[in-house]
Amino acid sequence: MRSRFAPSTTGEAHPGTLLSALLVWLDARAHHGQALLRLEDLDRTRVKSTWSAQLVDALAWLGLDWDETVIQSGRTPAHEAALDRLEAAGRLYPCTCSRADRTGGRRAPDGGWAYENTCRGKTLPPGGWRAVDVNLRVRLDDDRVELVDDGGLDLSQTPATDMGDPIVRRRDGVIAYQLAVVVDDADAGITHVVRGRDIAPSSATQVLLQRLLAVPTPRYRHHFLLLEQASGDKLAKLHGSIPFGELRARHTGEELCGLLAHAAGLVDVPAPCRPRDLVGTFDWSRVPASDHVARFDREGGLRIE
Predict the structure, then answer these.
(1) Neighbour count for residue 285 (Cβ, 10 Å)
(2) What residues does 57 pair with on adjacent strands?
(3) Which of 182, 102, 81, 95 is nearest to 139 (CA)?
(4) Rounded Cα–Cα distance for residues 139 and 156 (Å)
């Protein structure tokens, strides 16, 4: 078994980040497998080196260690080689459609706007994909993917129509998530992918990319999310509103581990503990499927409901 925790380094770590890292790590250690840390830092318009360093520090503070650390931005040759293979197969095409062009159209399973494959008929310029200065997409097969993850979540889709052909290289030259994650997982020999269920709608698209590149499909599992009370009764994905700096000022690593373990159903009371204390009794059957709400104040600290 070989798993990975692959956070984007576009902001401070928060409780949702650390929850996902803990579950990935426990799953690998409980099955005597390996756990890899991959820092996803391709989006140069949003990433900061200080956030990468802080994330590594936060994971160590929580008590997590890794068998290998990969910096995604150092993998450009592998990503470009994948684009070469897709070009040779006649799968790439330039796309001039903007996000505004899709707005108001058909909803995709991830809640965004589906792409209608408008530019599928376009061909690459004489210089190939490297000469494209707009978004670059890959033409998927129009196949339905039947897929259920290890937690019983149905991931089945016909991605080419439900989501639309994915962007694999942005107009600014950044390799897009869908391609990078498939290439990086394959090259690292990842057998199990554990991640939040907000990413679940991407799974079928990634399976079709795996087939185009002739690489294995790992096993998937998608866990519950921590949400925040954004406004009124509306819940939103927790991101940035409870930064690591404030968590660390209020809690020890063992205290936070206990809070996250309790939210995940792994302990009966939210008492301080270390990740290694949880390995022997870790079982996915104890982890709830429903999302939790996280609240924080400097006096009471983190509360997960």
Answers:
(1) 6
(2) none
(3) 95
(4) 19
Beta strands in the chain (DSSP E): 2-5, 34-39, 68-71, 92-95, 135-138, 167-169, 192-196, 219-223, 226-231, 234-237, 292-297, 301-304
Chain centroid to CA 20: how far? Answer: 10
CB 203 within 8 A of CB 210: no
Q: Write the single-letter amino acid at 289.
A: A
DSSP per-residue letters across 176-204: PHHHHHHHHHHHTT--EEEEEGGGGGGHH
- Output DSSP code: residue 302: E
Tokens of 40: 């996803």
Angle at 29 between CA 23 and CA 31, to 5 degrees: 105
Buried-exposed string 214-226: b where 16+ CB fall within 10 A, e elsewhere: eeebbebbbbbbb
Domain ranges of the chain: 76-183
**φ and ψ at residue 188, rounded to 5 degrees:** -85, -5
Helices 49-62, 253-263: crossing angle, 10 deg rounding: 80
Does domain 76-183 fall into CATH 3.40.50.620? Answer: yes
Q: Write out the chain's pLDDT in tens, 305 residues.
A: 999 999 999 888 889 999 999 999 999 999 999 999 999 999 988 888 888 999 999 999 999 999 999 999 999 999 999 999 999 999 999 999 988 888 888 899 998 899 999 999 999 999 999 999 999 999 999 999 999 999 999 999 999 999 999 999 999 999 999 999 999 999 999 999 999 999 999 999 999 999 999 999 999 999 999 988 654 444 455 566 788 999 999 999 999 999 999 999 999 999 999 999 999 999 999 999 999 998 888 888 999 98
Given a contact cutoff of 8 angstroms between Cβ atoms, the answer to whether 43 and 296 are in contact is no
Contacts of 206 (CB under 8 A, 6+ apart): 178, 181, 182
